[in-house]
């Protein structure tokens, strides 16, 4: 079965770090959702304006095209996947069984992490809108992500293996 393991969460939750480490550890390909945003979307976010689902449509299509074109049985995607629109788009358009892994981090820690980033388009001012938009799928695996990366990875791998 072809699977898409989606490491999801708001800005600052550690999606890219955890997803890329999981992909390396398991020998699976890695997709970074931020690379699929249009320049217009990145500009909009950098200006402090939240995206709408209409803004997200081409982003979802791009990620799905990349996922469905890859021959490997499992792929790891680092993606906020905040809204049901994005989640459904990934489930329906990726050509894969989608497994969501939600990285839970306290708001104060998220703000600290975002503020510490020097070269990212996502400002701290959008954190509240991301938290408001966040809708975690009922079947998502929820992982406390304010711990050491190796502990987070161990929990994810253990849960994925238990499902296999």
Structural class: alpha/beta
Q: In this structure, how is the largest beta sheet organized?
A: 5 strands, parallel
Radius of gyration: 15 Å
Strand order of the largest sheet: 2-3-1-4-5
Count of discrete domains: 1
Protein name: Gluconokinase
Family: Belongs to the gluconokinase GntK/GntV family.
Pfam families: AAA_18 (PF13238)
Catalytic activity: D-gluconate + ATP = 6-phospho-D-gluconate + ADP + H(+)
Please provide a written account of the structure.
By secondary structure, this protein is an alpha/beta fold. It has a single domain (3-163), classed as P-loop containing nucleotide triphosphate hydrolases (Rossmann fold, 3-Layer(aba) Sandwich), CATH 3.40.50.300. Helix content is 48%, strand content 16%. It is built from 7 helices and 5 strands. The chain has a 5-stranded parallel β-sheet, with helices on both faces.
């Amino acid at each position: 079965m072809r699977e898409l393991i989606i490491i999801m969460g708001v800005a600052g939750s550690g999606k890219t770090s955890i997803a890329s480490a999981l992909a390396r550890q398991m020998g699976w390909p890695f997709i970074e959702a931020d690379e699929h945003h249009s320049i217009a979307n990145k500009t909009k976010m950098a200006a402090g304006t939240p995206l709408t689902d209409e803004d997200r449509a081409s982003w979802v299509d791009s990620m799905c095209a990349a996922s469905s074109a890859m021959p490997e049985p499992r792929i790891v995607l680092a993606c906020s996947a905040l809204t049901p629109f994005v989640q459904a788009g990934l489930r329906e358009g990726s050509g894969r069984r989608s497994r969501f892994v939600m990285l839970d981090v306290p708001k104060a820690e998220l703000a600290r992490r975002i503020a510490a980033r020097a070269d990212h388009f996502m400002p701290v001012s959008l954190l509240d809108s991301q938290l408001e938009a966040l809708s975690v799928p009922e079947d998502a695996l929820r992982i406390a992500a304010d711990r050491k990366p190796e502990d987070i990875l161990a929990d994810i791998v253990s849960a994925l293996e238990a499902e296999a």
